[in-house]
Protein backbone atom coordinates (compact mmCIF):
# COMPACT_ATOMS: atom_id res chain seq x y z
CA UNK A 1 0.00 0.00 0.00
CA UNK A 2 1.32 3.44 -0.83
CA UNK A 3 1.90 5.96 1.97
CA UNK A 4 -0.79 4.48 4.19
CA UNK A 5 -3.57 5.31 1.70
CA UNK A 6 -6.03 2.51 1.24
CA UNK A 7 -5.08 1.47 -2.24
CA UNK A 8 -3.08 -1.31 -3.84
CA UNK A 9 -1.37 -0.13 -7.01
CA UNK A 10 -1.09 -2.77 -9.69
CA UNK A 11 1.24 -3.04 -12.67
CA UNK A 12 0.24 -5.37 -15.51
CA UNK A 13 2.85 -6.90 -17.81
CA UNK A 14 1.27 -8.25 -21.00
CA UNK A 15 -2.04 -6.94 -22.33
CA UNK A 16 -3.21 -9.96 -24.31
CA UNK A 17 -6.15 -12.23 -23.53
CA UNK A 18 -5.42 -12.52 -19.81
CA UNK A 19 -3.85 -9.08 -19.21
CA UNK A 20 -6.74 -7.34 -20.99
CA UNK A 21 -9.29 -9.44 -19.08
CA UNK A 22 -7.59 -8.60 -15.79
CA UNK A 23 -7.59 -4.85 -16.47
CA UNK A 24 -11.29 -5.00 -17.37
CA UNK A 25 -12.25 -7.06 -14.33
CA UNK A 26 -10.41 -4.73 -11.96
CA UNK A 27 -12.20 -1.76 -13.49
CA UNK A 28 -15.67 -3.17 -14.03
CA UNK A 29 -15.91 -4.81 -10.58
CA UNK A 30 -13.93 -2.08 -8.79
CA UNK A 31 -16.58 -1.15 -6.26
CA UNK A 32 -17.26 -4.75 -5.27
CA UNK A 33 -13.54 -5.47 -4.94
CA UNK A 34 -13.06 -2.43 -2.71
CA UNK A 35 -15.88 -3.60 -0.44
CA UNK A 36 -14.31 -7.06 -0.25
CA UNK A 37 -10.76 -5.99 0.42
CA UNK A 38 -11.16 -2.65 2.16
CA UNK A 39 -8.85 -0.99 -0.36
CA UNK A 40 -8.91 0.30 -3.91
CA UNK A 41 -7.32 -2.08 -6.42
CA UNK A 42 -6.05 0.35 -9.00
CA UNK A 43 -3.99 -0.33 -12.12
CA UNK A 44 -1.33 2.34 -12.39
CA UNK A 45 1.15 0.94 -14.92
CA UNK A 46 1.31 -1.46 -17.86
CA UNK A 47 3.81 -2.93 -20.25
CA UNK A 48 3.10 -4.60 -23.58
CA UNK A 49 5.20 -5.35 -26.59
CA UNK A 50 3.51 -3.06 -29.06
CA UNK A 51 2.42 0.33 -27.69
CA UNK A 52 0.88 1.26 -31.06
CA UNK A 53 -1.43 -1.77 -31.27
CA UNK A 54 -5.14 -1.03 -31.37
CA UNK A 55 -6.70 -2.37 -28.20
CA UNK A 56 -10.22 -2.29 -26.95
CA UNK A 57 -8.89 -0.91 -23.65
CA UNK A 58 -8.58 2.62 -22.32
CA UNK A 59 -4.93 2.99 -21.33
CA UNK A 60 -5.15 6.74 -20.70
CA UNK A 61 -3.42 7.94 -17.53
CA UNK A 62 -1.46 4.70 -17.08
CA UNK A 63 2.32 4.63 -16.83
CA UNK A 64 3.67 2.80 -19.88
CA UNK A 65 6.91 0.81 -19.69
CA UNK A 66 8.73 -0.25 -22.85
CA UNK A 67 10.58 -2.82 -20.77
CA UNK A 68 8.30 -4.93 -18.58
CA UNK A 69 11.15 -5.43 -16.10
CA UNK A 70 10.81 -1.76 -15.14
CA UNK A 71 7.58 -2.70 -13.34
CA UNK A 72 9.72 -4.32 -10.65
CA UNK A 73 11.24 -0.91 -9.89
CA UNK A 74 8.31 1.43 -10.55
CA UNK A 75 7.72 3.37 -7.31
CA UNK A 76 4.02 3.70 -8.17
CA UNK A 77 3.45 -0.04 -8.27
CA UNK A 78 2.86 -2.30 -5.23
CA UNK A 79 2.01 -5.57 -6.99
CA UNK A 80 2.93 -6.91 -10.43
CA UNK A 81 0.80 -9.21 -12.62
CA UNK A 82 3.04 -11.16 -14.98
CA UNK A 83 0.77 -12.03 -17.92
CA UNK A 84 3.31 -12.23 -20.73
CA UNK A 85 4.00 -15.97 -20.70
CA UNK A 86 6.99 -18.15 -21.66
CA UNK A 87 9.02 -20.28 -19.28
CA UNK A 88 12.09 -18.03 -19.47
CA UNK A 89 13.02 -14.65 -20.86
CA UNK A 90 11.33 -11.42 -19.81
CA UNK A 91 8.59 -13.09 -17.75
CA UNK A 92 11.09 -14.93 -15.56
CA UNK A 93 13.39 -11.92 -15.24
CA UNK A 94 10.48 -9.72 -14.21
CA UNK A 95 9.19 -12.17 -11.60
CA UNK A 96 12.68 -12.73 -10.17
CA UNK A 97 13.26 -8.97 -9.94
CA UNK A 98 9.93 -8.38 -8.17
CA UNK A 99 10.38 -11.21 -5.66
CA UNK A 100 13.98 -10.22 -4.95
CA UNK A 101 12.82 -6.80 -3.81
CA UNK A 102 9.83 -8.25 -1.91
CA UNK A 103 7.22 -7.05 -4.41
CA UNK A 104 4.11 -9.28 -4.62
CA UNK A 105 3.55 -11.12 -7.91
CA UNK A 106 0.50 -12.72 -9.46
CA UNK A 107 1.06 -14.85 -12.54
CA UNK A 108 -0.86 -17.14 -14.92
CA UNK A 109 2.39 -18.60 -16.24
CA UNK A 110 2.42 -22.34 -15.66
CA UNK A 111 5.36 -22.92 -18.01
CA UNK A 112 7.59 -20.65 -15.91
CA UNK A 113 6.48 -22.20 -12.61
CA UNK A 114 6.78 -25.77 -13.89
CA UNK A 115 10.41 -25.09 -14.85
CA UNK A 116 11.49 -22.64 -12.16
CA UNK A 117 8.97 -23.21 -9.37
CA UNK A 118 11.41 -24.30 -6.69
CA UNK A 119 13.72 -21.35 -7.29
CA UNK A 120 10.86 -18.84 -7.32
CA UNK A 121 9.23 -20.32 -4.21
CA UNK A 122 12.56 -20.04 -2.36
CA UNK A 123 13.04 -16.48 -3.55
CA UNK A 124 9.51 -15.50 -2.53
CA UNK A 125 10.00 -17.04 0.87
CA UNK A 126 13.35 -15.36 1.41
CA UNK A 127 11.86 -11.86 1.00
CA UNK A 128 8.33 -12.64 2.21
CA UNK A 129 6.79 -11.62 -1.12
CA UNK A 130 3.54 -13.43 -1.95
CA UNK A 131 3.44 -15.27 -5.28
CA UNK A 132 -0.09 -16.07 -6.52
CA UNK A 133 -0.66 -18.52 -9.35
CA UNK A 134 -4.30 -19.62 -9.22
CA UNK A 135 -4.75 -18.66 -12.89
CA UNK A 136 -1.90 -20.93 -13.99
CA UNK A 137 -3.89 -24.14 -13.47
CA UNK A 138 -7.40 -24.78 -14.77
CA UNK A 139 -8.08 -21.06 -15.32
CA UNK A 140 -11.13 -19.97 -13.37
CA UNK A 141 -11.47 -23.15 -11.27
CA UNK A 142 -10.10 -22.37 -7.79
CA UNK A 143 -8.16 -25.64 -7.68
CA UNK A 144 -5.08 -24.12 -6.06
CA UNK A 145 -7.17 -22.71 -3.21
CA UNK A 146 -8.99 -26.02 -2.96
CA UNK A 147 -5.78 -28.06 -2.60
CA UNK A 148 -3.80 -25.55 -0.52
CA UNK A 149 -6.57 -24.51 1.85
CA UNK A 150 -9.85 -26.43 1.60
CA UNK A 151 -8.25 -29.88 1.44
CA UNK A 152 -5.26 -29.14 3.68
CA UNK A 153 -6.32 -31.78 6.23
CA UNK A 154 -6.04 -34.60 3.72
CA UNK A 155 -3.33 -36.93 2.61
CA UNK A 156 -3.90 -36.68 -1.14
CA UNK A 157 -4.29 -40.02 -2.89
CA UNK A 158 -4.54 -38.76 -6.46
CA UNK A 159 -5.26 -35.74 -8.62
CA UNK A 160 -6.64 -36.31 -12.12
CA UNK A 161 -7.89 -33.72 -14.49
CA UNK A 162 -8.76 -32.32 -17.84
CA UNK A 163 -6.23 -29.50 -17.69
CA UNK A 164 -6.17 -28.19 -21.23
CA UNK A 165 -9.23 -26.44 -22.59
CA UNK A 166 -7.96 -26.43 -26.16
CA UNK A 167 -7.59 -30.23 -26.26
CA UNK A 168 -10.92 -30.79 -24.56
CA UNK A 169 -12.57 -28.41 -27.00
CA UNK A 170 -10.97 -30.26 -29.94
CA UNK A 171 -11.87 -33.74 -28.66
CA UNK A 172 -15.43 -32.71 -27.83
CA UNK A 173 -15.98 -31.00 -31.17
CA UNK A 174 -14.44 -33.91 -33.09
CA UNK A 175 -16.83 -36.28 -31.34
CA UNK A 176 -19.89 -34.12 -31.83
CA UNK A 177 -19.29 -33.05 -35.43
CA UNK A 178 -16.92 -35.59 -36.96
CA UNK A 179 -14.76 -32.65 -38.08
CA UNK A 180 -11.01 -32.92 -38.61
CA UNK A 181 -8.42 -32.16 -35.93
CA UNK A 182 -6.68 -29.28 -37.77
CA UNK A 183 -9.92 -27.51 -38.59
CA UNK A 184 -11.08 -27.56 -34.96
CA UNK A 185 -7.66 -26.45 -33.68
CA UNK A 186 -7.91 -23.28 -35.79
CA UNK A 187 -11.23 -22.51 -34.12
CA UNK A 188 -9.78 -22.96 -30.61
CA UNK A 189 -6.96 -20.57 -31.53
CA UNK A 190 -9.42 -17.97 -32.81
CA UNK A 191 -11.34 -18.21 -29.52
CA UNK A 192 -8.21 -17.28 -27.50
CA UNK A 193 -7.89 -20.67 -25.76
CA UNK A 194 -4.68 -21.91 -27.34
CA UNK A 195 -1.14 -21.13 -26.19
CA UNK A 196 1.08 -18.88 -28.33
CA UNK A 197 2.55 -22.13 -29.68
CA UNK A 198 -0.48 -24.45 -30.03
CA UNK A 199 1.76 -27.52 -30.06
CA UNK A 200 2.05 -26.86 -26.31
CA UNK A 201 -1.67 -27.62 -26.13
CA UNK A 202 -2.06 -30.53 -28.55
CA UNK A 203 1.17 -32.30 -27.61
CA UNK A 204 0.22 -32.31 -23.92
CA UNK A 205 2.96 -29.95 -22.73
CA UNK A 206 0.62 -27.32 -21.29
CA UNK A 207 -1.34 -30.00 -19.40
CA UNK A 208 1.99 -31.39 -18.14
CA UNK A 209 3.04 -27.94 -16.89
CA UNK A 210 -0.21 -27.76 -14.92
CA UNK A 211 0.03 -31.34 -13.66
CA UNK A 212 3.56 -30.67 -12.43
CA UNK A 213 2.22 -27.82 -10.29
CA UNK A 214 -0.80 -29.73 -8.99
CA UNK A 215 1.43 -32.68 -8.06
CA UNK A 216 3.80 -30.38 -6.20
CA UNK A 217 0.96 -28.90 -4.20
CA UNK A 218 -0.78 -32.23 -3.60
CA UNK A 219 2.32 -34.16 -2.51
CA UNK A 220 4.53 -31.41 -1.13
CA UNK A 221 7.38 -32.09 -3.56
CA UNK A 222 9.56 -30.01 -5.84
CA UNK A 223 7.82 -29.35 -9.17
CA UNK A 224 9.37 -31.91 -11.57
CA UNK A 225 8.21 -31.22 -15.13
CA UNK A 226 11.05 -33.37 -16.45
CA UNK A 227 9.48 -36.38 -14.70
CA UNK A 228 6.07 -36.21 -16.41
CA UNK A 229 5.24 -38.85 -19.02
CA UNK A 230 3.65 -36.85 -21.86
CA UNK A 231 1.56 -37.88 -24.87
CA UNK A 232 -0.70 -35.48 -26.79
CA UNK A 233 -3.85 -35.88 -28.90
CA UNK A 234 -2.54 -35.63 -32.46
CA UNK A 235 -2.97 -39.38 -32.98
CA UNK A 236 -6.48 -39.66 -31.63
CA UNK A 237 -8.50 -40.59 -34.70
CA UNK A 238 -12.17 -40.38 -35.53
CA UNK A 239 -12.18 -44.19 -35.61
CA UNK A 240 -10.93 -44.42 -32.00
CA UNK A 241 -13.47 -41.82 -30.89
CA UNK A 242 -16.23 -43.92 -32.49
CA UNK A 243 -14.98 -47.19 -30.91
CA UNK A 244 -14.74 -45.45 -27.52
CA UNK A 245 -18.43 -44.57 -27.84
CA UNK A 246 -19.33 -48.17 -28.70
CA UNK A 247 -17.45 -49.40 -25.62
CA UNK A 248 -19.16 -46.86 -23.31
CA UNK A 249 -16.18 -44.50 -23.03
CA UNK A 250 -15.21 -40.96 -24.00
CA UNK A 251 -11.67 -39.95 -24.90
CA UNK A 252 -10.15 -37.17 -22.77
CA UNK A 253 -6.63 -35.83 -22.41
CA UNK A 254 -6.03 -36.41 -18.69
CA UNK A 255 -3.24 -35.45 -16.35
CA UNK A 256 -2.89 -37.90 -13.47
CA UNK A 257 -0.63 -37.67 -10.42
CA UNK A 258 -0.61 -40.27 -7.69
CA UNK A 259 1.76 -41.77 -5.19
CA UNK A 260 2.43 -45.45 -5.91
CA UNK A 261 4.68 -48.06 -4.33
CA UNK A 262 7.21 -47.25 -7.09
CA UNK A 263 7.13 -43.51 -6.35
CA UNK A 264 5.29 -40.48 -7.71
CA UNK A 265 3.49 -41.23 -10.97
CA UNK A 266 2.88 -38.16 -13.16
CA UNK A 267 1.41 -38.69 -16.61
CA UNK A 268 -0.47 -36.83 -19.32
CA UNK A 269 -2.02 -38.82 -22.16
CA UNK A 270 -5.32 -39.49 -23.92
CA UNK A 271 -7.54 -41.72 -21.79
CA UNK A 272 -10.79 -43.55 -22.22
CA UNK A 273 -13.02 -42.71 -19.28
CA UNK A 274 -16.45 -44.26 -18.62
CA UNK A 275 -19.07 -42.09 -20.35
CA UNK A 276 -21.05 -41.76 -17.11
CA UNK A 277 -18.05 -40.62 -14.98
CA UNK A 278 -18.17 -36.94 -13.85
CA UNK A 279 -14.94 -36.20 -15.72
CA UNK A 280 -16.49 -37.51 -18.98
CA UNK A 281 -19.23 -34.89 -18.68
CA UNK A 282 -16.65 -32.09 -18.73
CA UNK A 283 -16.90 -30.91 -22.30
CA UNK A 284 -15.74 -28.15 -24.63
CA UNK A 285 -13.27 -25.63 -23.21
CA UNK A 286 -14.22 -26.64 -19.66
CA UNK A 287 -11.65 -28.16 -17.36
CA UNK A 288 -12.31 -30.69 -14.60
CA UNK A 289 -10.15 -31.85 -11.72
CA UNK A 290 -10.92 -34.77 -9.42
CA UNK A 291 -9.01 -34.85 -6.14
CA UNK A 292 -9.08 -37.93 -3.97
CA UNK A 293 -8.27 -37.21 -0.31
CA UNK A 294 -7.91 -39.77 2.48
CA UNK A 295 -10.48 -37.98 4.65
CA UNK A 296 -12.82 -36.28 2.21
CA UNK A 297 -12.99 -38.90 -0.53
CA UNK A 298 -13.50 -37.63 -4.04
CA UNK A 299 -13.97 -33.92 -4.77
CA UNK A 300 -14.90 -32.91 -8.32
CA UNK A 301 -14.11 -29.44 -9.64
CA UNK A 302 -15.40 -28.15 -12.96
CA UNK A 303 -15.33 -24.81 -14.72
CA UNK A 304 -13.84 -22.78 -17.53
CA UNK A 305 -10.12 -23.39 -17.85
CA UNK A 306 -9.23 -20.75 -20.43
CA UNK A 307 -10.29 -17.46 -21.94
CA UNK A 308 -10.16 -13.87 -20.77
CA UNK A 309 -12.96 -13.84 -18.17
CA UNK A 310 -12.26 -17.12 -16.35
CA UNK A 311 -8.51 -16.56 -16.22
CA UNK A 312 -8.88 -12.96 -15.06
CA UNK A 313 -11.27 -14.24 -12.38
CA UNK A 314 -8.39 -16.27 -10.92
CA UNK A 315 -5.78 -13.50 -11.34
CA UNK A 316 -7.98 -11.00 -9.53
CA UNK A 317 -8.80 -13.51 -6.77
CA UNK A 318 -5.07 -13.75 -6.05
CA UNK A 319 -4.83 -9.94 -5.97
CA UNK A 320 -7.73 -9.91 -3.50
CA UNK A 321 -5.92 -12.45 -1.26
CA UNK A 322 -2.82 -10.28 -1.25
CA UNK A 323 -4.83 -7.11 -0.57
CA UNK A 324 -6.39 -8.90 2.40
CA UNK A 325 -2.94 -9.75 3.73
CA UNK A 326 -3.12 -13.50 3.15
CA UNK A 327 0.34 -15.09 2.99
CA UNK A 328 0.62 -18.79 2.12
CA UNK A 329 3.55 -20.99 1.11
CA UNK A 330 3.79 -21.11 -2.68
CA UNK A 331 3.51 -24.91 -2.95
CA UNK A 332 1.69 -25.48 0.34
CA UNK A 333 4.77 -26.23 2.46
CA UNK A 334 7.82 -24.04 3.13
CA UNK A 335 10.09 -24.07 0.06
CA UNK A 336 12.97 -25.51 2.09
CA UNK A 337 10.70 -28.42 3.06
CA UNK A 338 9.71 -29.43 -0.49
CA UNK A 339 10.42 -33.17 -0.83
CA UNK A 340 12.35 -34.91 -3.58
CA UNK A 341 10.00 -37.80 -4.19
CA UNK A 342 11.23 -40.85 -6.09
CA UNK A 343 9.65 -40.88 -9.55
CA UNK A 344 7.79 -43.97 -10.76
CA UNK A 345 8.77 -44.89 -14.34
CA UNK A 346 5.87 -45.18 -16.79
CA UNK A 347 6.79 -48.83 -17.40
CA UNK A 348 5.77 -49.52 -13.78
CA UNK A 349 2.24 -48.18 -14.42
CA UNK A 350 -0.59 -50.69 -14.05
CA UNK A 351 -3.95 -50.21 -15.69
CA UNK A 352 -6.37 -51.32 -18.38
CA UNK A 353 -5.75 -50.68 -22.06
CA UNK A 354 -7.65 -50.19 -25.32
CA UNK A 355 -5.79 -51.51 -28.35
CA UNK A 356 -6.77 -51.00 -31.99
CA UNK A 357 -5.09 -52.96 -34.73
CA UNK A 358 -5.55 -52.80 -38.49
CA UNK A 359 -5.12 -56.38 -39.65
CA UNK A 360 -5.55 -58.47 -42.79
CA UNK A 361 -8.91 -60.20 -42.67
CA UNK A 362 -7.74 -63.83 -42.82
CA UNK A 363 -7.90 -66.92 -40.58
CA UNK A 364 -5.40 -67.25 -37.70
CA UNK A 365 -4.73 -63.55 -37.13
CA UNK A 366 -6.62 -63.37 -33.86
CA UNK A 367 -4.94 -66.54 -32.61
CA UNK A 368 -1.49 -65.02 -33.27
CA UNK A 369 -2.40 -61.79 -31.48
CA UNK A 370 -3.88 -63.50 -28.44
CA UNK A 371 -0.82 -65.76 -28.18
CA UNK A 372 1.47 -62.71 -27.97
CA UNK A 373 -0.76 -61.11 -25.32
CA UNK A 374 -0.75 -64.36 -23.33
CA UNK A 375 3.06 -64.54 -23.52
CA UNK A 376 3.23 -61.01 -22.04
CA UNK A 377 0.76 -61.63 -19.18
CA UNK A 378 -1.91 -59.45 -20.77
CA UNK A 379 -5.44 -60.76 -20.26
CA UNK A 380 -8.15 -59.72 -22.76
CA UNK A 381 -11.35 -58.25 -21.35
CA UNK A 382 -13.27 -57.69 -24.58
CA UNK A 383 -12.79 -57.89 -28.32
CA UNK A 384 -14.61 -56.26 -31.22
CA UNK A 385 -14.24 -57.30 -34.81
CA UNK A 386 -17.09 -56.18 -36.99
CA UNK A 387 -17.61 -56.46 -40.71
CA UNK A 388 -15.77 -58.67 -43.18
CA UNK A 389 -13.33 -57.68 -45.85
CA UNK A 390 -11.54 -60.90 -46.86
CA UNK A 391 -7.85 -60.34 -47.59
CA UNK A 392 -8.17 -56.59 -46.85
CA UNK A 393 -7.63 -54.38 -43.79
CA UNK A 394 -10.14 -54.53 -40.93
CA UNK A 395 -9.92 -53.03 -37.45
CA UNK A 396 -9.72 -55.24 -34.37
CA UNK A 397 -10.32 -53.62 -31.01
CA UNK A 398 -9.30 -55.19 -27.71
CA UNK A 399 -9.57 -54.03 -24.15
CA UNK A 400 -7.37 -55.58 -21.47
CA UNK A 401 -7.75 -56.38 -17.83
CA UNK A 402 -5.30 -54.76 -15.41
CA UNK A 403 -1.82 -55.10 -16.93
CA UNK A 404 1.70 -53.79 -16.42
CA UNK A 405 2.71 -51.09 -18.93
CA UNK A 406 6.07 -52.78 -19.55
CA UNK A 407 4.24 -56.01 -20.50
CA UNK A 408 1.79 -54.15 -22.72
CA UNK A 409 4.59 -52.33 -24.53
CA UNK A 410 6.46 -55.62 -25.07
CA UNK A 411 3.30 -57.23 -26.48
CA UNK A 412 2.55 -54.30 -28.80
CA UNK A 413 6.05 -54.33 -30.17
CA UNK A 414 5.69 -57.98 -31.15
CA UNK A 415 2.14 -57.55 -32.44
CA UNK A 416 3.21 -54.57 -34.56
CA UNK A 417 5.86 -56.80 -36.17
CA UNK A 418 3.37 -59.49 -37.27
CA UNK A 419 2.97 -59.60 -41.08
CA UNK A 420 -0.82 -59.58 -40.76
CA UNK A 421 -0.79 -56.31 -38.74
CA UNK A 422 -0.76 -53.48 -41.27
CA UNK A 423 -0.32 -50.32 -39.16
CA UNK A 424 1.40 -49.52 -35.87
CA UNK A 425 -0.96 -50.59 -33.05
CA UNK A 426 -2.91 -47.75 -31.40
CA UNK A 427 -3.06 -47.91 -27.61
CA UNK A 428 -5.18 -45.71 -25.32
CA UNK A 429 -5.14 -46.23 -21.56
CA UNK A 430 -8.44 -46.73 -19.76
CA UNK A 431 -8.85 -44.67 -16.60
CA UNK A 432 -11.63 -44.62 -14.02
CA UNK A 433 -11.12 -41.42 -12.00
N1 LIG B 1 -5.36 -17.46 -22.68
C1 LIG B 1 -5.76 -18.22 -21.67
O1 LIG B 1 -6.89 -18.69 -21.65
C2 LIG B 1 -4.82 -18.50 -20.52
C3 LIG B 1 -5.33 -19.19 -19.41
C4 LIG B 1 -4.50 -19.44 -18.31
C5 LIG B 1 -3.19 -19.03 -18.36
N2 LIG B 1 -2.72 -18.37 -19.45
C6 LIG B 1 -1.34 -17.87 -19.40
O2 LIG B 1 -1.39 -16.47 -19.31
C7 LIG B 1 -0.24 -15.91 -19.92
C8 LIG B 1 -0.66 -14.93 -20.99
O3 LIG B 1 -1.43 -15.62 -21.93
P1 LIG B 1 -2.38 -14.89 -22.99
O4 LIG B 1 -3.26 -15.94 -23.53
O5 LIG B 1 -2.95 -13.67 -22.41
O6 LIG B 1 -1.31 -14.53 -24.10
P2 LIG B 1 -1.38 -13.37 -25.20
O7 LIG B 1 -0.43 -13.74 -26.27
O8 LIG B 1 -2.79 -13.07 -25.56
O9 LIG B 1 -0.83 -12.15 -24.38
C9 LIG B 1 0.51 -11.97 -24.03
C10 LIG B 1 0.83 -10.50 -24.11
O10 LIG B 1 2.17 -10.28 -23.66
C11 LIG B 1 2.75 -9.32 -24.51
N3 LIG B 1 4.19 -9.42 -24.52
C12 LIG B 1 4.97 -10.30 -25.17
N4 LIG B 1 6.26 -10.03 -24.93
C13 LIG B 1 6.29 -8.98 -24.10
C14 LIG B 1 7.31 -8.21 -23.52
N5 LIG B 1 8.57 -8.52 -23.73
N6 LIG B 1 6.98 -7.19 -22.72
C15 LIG B 1 5.70 -6.88 -22.48
N7 LIG B 1 4.66 -7.55 -23.03
C16 LIG B 1 4.97 -8.58 -23.83
C17 LIG B 1 2.16 -9.59 -25.88
O11 LIG B 1 2.24 -8.48 -26.72
C18 LIG B 1 0.71 -9.95 -25.52
O12 LIG B 1 -0.09 -8.80 -25.50
C19 LIG B 1 0.58 -17.09 -20.41
O13 LIG B 1 1.49 -17.46 -19.41
C20 LIG B 1 -0.47 -18.17 -20.58
O14 LIG B 1 0.07 -19.47 -20.49
C21 LIG B 1 -3.50 -18.09 -20.53
N1 LIG C 1 -3.98 -23.01 -23.63
C1 LIG C 1 -4.55 -23.29 -22.35
C2 LIG C 1 -4.97 -22.01 -21.70
C3 LIG C 1 -5.34 -22.19 -20.28
O1 LIG C 1 -4.22 -22.42 -19.49
C4 LIG C 1 -5.74 -24.22 -22.51
O2 LIG C 1 -6.18 -24.43 -23.63
O3 LIG C 1 -6.20 -24.76 -21.53
NA1 LIG D 1 -7.29 -22.02 -11.25
Automatic annotation (TrEMBL):
Family matches, as CDD domains: ACT_HSDH-Hom
Molecular function as annotated in GO: homoserine dehydrogenase activity
InterPro entries per UniProt: ACT-like_dom_sf (IPR045865), ACT_dom (IPR002912), Asp/hSer_DH_NAD-bd (IPR005106), HDH (IPR016204), HDH_cat (IPR001342), HDH_CS (IPR019811), NAD(P)-bd_dom_sf (IPR036291)
Pathway given in the UniProt record: Amino-acid biosynthesis; L-methionine biosynthesis via de novo pathway; L-homoserine from L-aspartate: step 3/3; Amino-acid biosynthesis; L-threonine biosynthesis; L-threonine from L-aspartate: step 3/5
Top EC category: oxidoreductase
Ranges where the ACT domain occurs: 354-429
Keyword Transit peptide: no
Signal peptide coordinates: none
Domain of life: Bacteria
E.C. number: 1.1.1.3
PANTHER family tied to this protein: HOMOSERINE DEHYDROGENASE (PTHR43331)
Protein family according to the UniProt entry: Belongs to the homoserine dehydrogenase family.
Protein name (database record): Homoserine dehydrogenase
Organism in which the protein naturally occurs: Benzoatithermus flavus
